[in-house]
Amino acid sequence: MNRLPAVLMMALVFASGDVIANEVTETNQSSVGTLHSAPASIISLKNSLVSAEVAANIERIHVDVGDTVKLGDELAHLDCREYDANLEQAQANVKTIEAQKKSAESLVQTRLSDIQASKANEALSEAQAQAERSRISVAHSQYSAAKARLEAEQAKCLLANIELQRARNLRQQRAISQQELDTAQTTLQVAQAECRAVESSLIAVKANIATAEATASAATAMVKSQEAKTLAAKSNLDVAKTNVSIFAATLLAAEARYKTESLMVSRCTLSAPFDGQIVNRMVQQGQRIATGEKAFQLLSIQDAEVVASLSANELDSLQKAKTIYFTADDKQLEVSLRSIVATVTGQASTQEIRLKFTQENVLPIGKNGRVSW
User: Fold this and answer.
1) Of 158, 279, 313, 341, which one has the greatest count of Cβ atoms within 10 A?
2) CA 235, CA 348: separation in Å to the nearest integer?
3) Strands 269-271 and 74-79: what pairing?
4) Considering Cα of 358, then 9, then 289, then 265, what sign does the dihedral take?
5) What is the 3-state secondary structure (H, E, C) of 201-256?
6) CA–CA separation, 244 vs 251, rounded Å?
7) Is the whole model's pTM more than 0.85, yes or no?
């Protein structure tokens, strides 16, 4: 930072404007032919009061009156340990909620896996139940066949018994031989054995049917159980998704708070909003400064303009002039009309005009002189 001459510094306090200290051609006013002139002064387009955006004690002051600064230069630093602690807490909250959200998202994947496993078990149980139902159908067919065979064998037994009785009567009458009677007895015994075998087969088929029905019933119950587990897994998934949404919303709020606390910490540094010169310092080191309280007055020493008030006739002639000058302290600088303020003020009905320098200006901000044309 630089210190300007004391005379220039004092002139800067009165108004706003821009000073560019380079060599300028000096011409005596009388040497240039002019017909009209009016009072005018140099102003700056940037004259800012730098205020505190947070309440804190002033820890360090880096500039003083007369110092020139660049955009972003640190003017003062506030003691913001409280805001730093709030920022650390906000950052910790963000990390905690991020971990919770990640855990909830992991749980969602677990619930999805649970649903897939439950559906697989459900399909397996249904397949088992279907297999047992097929087994029951086959067993019923076997039972029907065995029953039909039993009826046929029972008919054979009955016929063999009748033939045996007939053979016995014929033997008593000596109409047949003993061998023929023995054959009839053997035929009956074989038929009875076949009946017993078929009856045993029928009992076994009944047992198979009962077993298959029990297994099918158990498989059906398992299907219902797996269906219930699938529904529970879906419900758990919905809860997990809801938790993810809650943590996502909470994370957004925590991130917003973190940004707010970061902004508060950034406001602990008072910085220059533009290039210029410090023309007033209102605070002292160690002082408690409130939010919005003014700390420095910063004046731009660039983009200086000339301001004057002209009557309607003066304004008309100035607009027709080929050359316009601003004169002060025996220095005559050429200017040009930049704008005319579209309001008439005062009893003299004047309008404010703004003129820009067409050459480098060495006169201080706030300098009074005359504009001539």
Assistant:
1) 279
2) 84
3) antiparallel
4) positive
5) HHHHHHHHHHHHHHHHHHHHHHHHHHHHHHHHHHHHHHHHHHHHHHHHHHHHHHHH
6) 10
7) no
Sheet with 74-79, edge to edge strand ranges: 269-271, 74-79, 56-61, 288-289
> Residue 301 and residue 47: Cα distance in Å, rounded?
9
Residue 48 makes CB contacts below 8 A (sequence gap 6+) with 273, 274, 276, 297, 298, 299
43, 328 Cβ separation under 8 angstroms: no
From 302, 311, 342, select the one nearest 36 (Cα to Cα). Answer: 311
Which residues have CB under 8 Å from 285's CB, separation 6+?
A: 58, 59, 60, 61
* Helix (H/G/I), strand (E/B), else coil: 358: coil
Q: Please enumerate in sequence order all residues whose Cβ is within 8 A of that of 213, keeping only pairs 6 or more positions apart, or say none.
A: 132, 136
Radius of gyration in angstroms for the set of CA atoms belonging to the chain, rounded to a whole number: 56
- Which pLDDT tens digits describe the chain residue by residue (373 residues)? 444 443 344 344 333 333 333 333 333 344 445 689 999 999 999 999 999 999 999 999 999 999 999 999 999 999 999 999 999 999 999 999 999 999 999 999 998 998 898 889 888 888 888 888 888 888 788 778 877 877 887 788 888 888 888 888 888 888 888 888 888 889 888 888 888 888 888 888 888 888 888 888 888 888 888 888 888 988 998 999 999 999 999 999 999 999 999 999 999 999 999 999 999 999 999 999 999 999 999 999 888 999 999 999 999 999 999 999 999 998 999 999 999 999 999 888 999 999 999 998 889 999 999 999 9
Beta strand ranges found along the chain (DSSP E): 37-44, 47-51, 56-61, 68-69, 74-79, 269-271, 276-281, 288-289, 294-299, 304-310, 324-328, 331-345, 350-357, 368-372
How many residues make up the chain in this entry?
Answer: 373
Report the distance separating Cα 308 and Cα 115, nearest Å: 82
* 146 φ, ψ (degrees, to nearest 5): -65, -40
As beta bridge partners, residue 334 has 325
Judge contact between 101 and 247, C-beta under 8 A. Answer: yes
